[in-house]
């Protein structure tokens, strides 16, 4: 699956939740798209539920199939609870941390900031969205990029105490990745065990 650039409301309606952020269309049409979208009598198979959960996770974090599978393999080898570790690895991606710090309004916007060399990690420019941030590392905006409209608008009024695993310094426009988040702190509505069950069959 290539990076999805189509209508985001259509994907949100498929899963019944605003996985790309607040969605006015979803609020008005809270049923799947298509001719039979509002027919809720259809029952999904076990495989269908598992596949849908994996697709939801991939769309939510903006990760391609190969990247997602590689993260799953890494999580499975970690010795921890595979599903939880998978989400923790996704949360540790640089683009996601930039989003959690409020530097960008969406993960897609965060990915663009990273790609365009606007983001620094421990003072060095990192332009790899999938870069795995380690506890203690400081993520910030390059000096010449701090006046960017997308950054200032995203930071305006953002609640920086929202996520307990990151800490924001308003003066330096940078944030520290304090620790790997606990599963109960990750707000995404993802049933990771279904993803584990799906991959265990393959």
Automatic annotation (TrEMBL):
Domain annotation RNA-binding S4: ranges: 92-156
Pfam families assigned: Ribosomal_S4 (PF00163), S4 (PF01479)
A biological process term (GO) from this entry: ribosomal small subunit biogenesis
Listed InterPro entries: Ribosomal_uS4, Ribosomal_uS4_bac-type, Ribosomal_uS4_CS, Ribosomal_uS4_N, S4_RNA-bd, S4_RNA-bd_sf
One annotated GO molecular function: structural constituent of ribosome
Keyword Repeat: no
Alphabetized UniProt keyword annotations: Ribonucleoprotein, Ribosomal protein, RNA-binding, rRNA-binding
Spans annotated as Disordered: 26-45
Superkingdom of the source species: Bacteria
GO cellular component: small ribosomal subunit
Domain (Small ribosomal subunit protein uS4 N-terminal): residue spans on this chain: 3-91
Function: One of the primary rRNA binding proteins, it binds directly to 16S rRNA where it nucleates assembly of the body of the 30S subunit.
Family assignment from sequence similarity: Belongs to the universal ribosomal protein uS4 family.
Quaternary structure and interacting proteins, as annotated: Part of the 30S ribosomal subunit. Contacts protein S5. The interaction surface between S4 and S5 is involved in control of translational fidelity.
NCBIfam families, A to Z: PRK05327.1, rpsD_bact
Protein name (database record): Small ribosomal subunit protein uS4
Gene symbol of the encoding locus: rpsD
């Amino acid at each position: 699956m290539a990076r999805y650039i189509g209508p985001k409301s259509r994907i949100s309606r498929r899963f019944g939740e605003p996985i790309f952020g607040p969605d006015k269309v979803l609020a008005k049409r809270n049923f799947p798209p298509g001719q039979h979208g509002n027919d809720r009598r259809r029952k999904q198979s076990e495989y269908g539920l598992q596949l849908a959960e994996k697709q939801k996770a991939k769309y939510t974090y903006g990760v391609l199939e190969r990247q997602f599978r590689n993260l799953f393999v890494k999580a499975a080898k970690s010795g921890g609870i595979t599903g939880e570790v998978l989400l923790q690895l996704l949360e540790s991606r640089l683009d996601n941390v930039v989003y959690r710090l409020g530097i960008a309004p969406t993960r897609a916007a965060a990915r663009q900031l990273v790609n365009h060399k606007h983001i620094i990690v421990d003072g060095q420019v990192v332009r790899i969205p999938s870069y795995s941030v380690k506890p203690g590392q400081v993520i910030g905006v390059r000096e010449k990029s701090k006046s960017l409209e997308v950054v200032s608008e995203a930071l305006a009024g953002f609640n920086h105490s929202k996520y307990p695993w990151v800490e924001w310094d308003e003066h330096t426009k940078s944030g520290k990745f304090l620790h790997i988040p606990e599963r109960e702190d990750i707000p995404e509505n993802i049933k990771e065990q279904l993803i584990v069950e799906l991959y265990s069959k393959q």
